[in-house]
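Supplementary Text 2. Reproducibility record for the structural model of the 382-residue chain.

All settings were left at their defaults, and a single model was retained for analysis rather than an ensemble. We include the record here because the model underlies the residue-level annotations in Supplementary Table 4.
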Amino acid sequence: MRIALIGPAYPYRGGLVHFQEALYRALQARGHEPLLVSFRRQYPDFLFPGRTQYDRPRSDALPGVRLIDTLAPWTWFEASRWICAQGAQVAVFRYWMPFFAPAFGVMARLLRRHKLRVLAIVDNALPHERHPGDRQLSRFFLRSCEAFVFMSRTVAEDVRRLGLERPSCLVPHPAYTLFGDPIAQEEARSRLGLPESAPLWLFFGYVRPYKGLGVLLEAASRARRHIPELMGLVVGEFYEDPRPYKELARRLGLQEAVRFYPEYVPNEQVGLFFSAADLVVLPYLEATQSGVGLIALHFERPLLATAVGGLPELVEPDKGMLVPPADAEAMAAAMVRFFRELGPAYFGQALREAKRRHSWEQLAQAIEALSQPCAMSCPPSY
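Retained model, structure tokens:
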């Protein structure tokens, strides 16, 4: 089949771009002809919270055809005509926030008029940070789709609560593999200038209020009462003012125990941080699924996460530890238990088995199944 994958692509950056590229390659490996359809303008600059929407030059990137301007409705029609002119039979929208619902909803309806099968991979039916009109916008787009792919039960339930029943497949979010293979922990720490034997946790990714970094810093301070040598890394671009977090770390006495790397991390350096860490922490106050968790799975690093959204589906008891959200005491106790009693090797075999199950081929198969005119819902694959 010729399949249009509609969402961000290089030269944009971030996990969504990495996802689209990996899915492209998985579909291509199964004999399909995918098309990456991307944005001329994704967000207006004043709405984008980071420093830049664009990646540095990447030799391994798959550039998309840049057709959609979210603020220019005539481009929605132009993009739809282009997709039809390429002979596409299926359109797969990547949906993660209501800002894109008007453009995607119009395009989906236009494509269906030309007999394309329209699917959506739904990351979030409703955003982490809510605004008036979110439900109405999401319904406008999602109602235009004929089938859904979900990567967590939480999102599937959110869509059903919006009153939408469609054929669907529930598959685990695949593990990211584009960041290279794990390297020896000693080498990774040497390159980062970190102590070779210190217990080390990692917070990775964009910093936003719902990510709960403040709770993690409080938990780390409490855990250090029992593990004085405990260290942490906060790695990723801040989508808010970083100064309150650094001031909190100072007040908690963590100046030497927590190192901040407040920049977007190029692909070739991601593995360095995960290979150096013993434990990856997701202290989120709200979540659906987590791309960071799937990077950790690829590098076979255990997770300490909060029991929100779809995270319990990723962090089963033999692959990591779960604590209540916004509970620094419980998180500190879990950190102490991990470093004093369990250790990374405790979860090793289960992580390797889970890594094999979280495959891109499985996601490609779900899209194949839902692309058929008489598609039925797939049984959950995890």
